[in-house]
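Researcher: Please translate sequence to structure tokens.
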Amino acid sequence: MLLGLKSLVDWIKETVERKKGGSEEPREKEIGVGKMLVEAIATSIDALCIGFAYMWLPIGEAMLFFGVIGITTFILSYLSILLAKWLAKWLQNWAGLLAAAVFMGIAIKILLEGLLP
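Model: Translation complete:
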């Protein structure tokens, strides 16, 4: 829920800044080397966990699984980038609000699952 609220506040701040500055175009955010390195490490840890899950398999079968997972991940990542570039034209001004709504919806769903029998 906190992540959703933070996203909502950030979206409101950016919208107010844009309106004050007179520009309707949202500014592009830079992704630095540090942020990319953190993402790469997190992805590597995730891949290591998958590797441990398949330790019981013979090496040939495990390599087949890893190859399928790797190729599938590459294809889906590439398609996601293409889709994101296409959708960015229409969602550019509303992406922060959409993210906040999704985060809050997930938080409410998890809360209700925990509270209701």
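Researcher: Any highlights?
Model: Helices lie at 2-21, 33-53, 59-91, 95-115.
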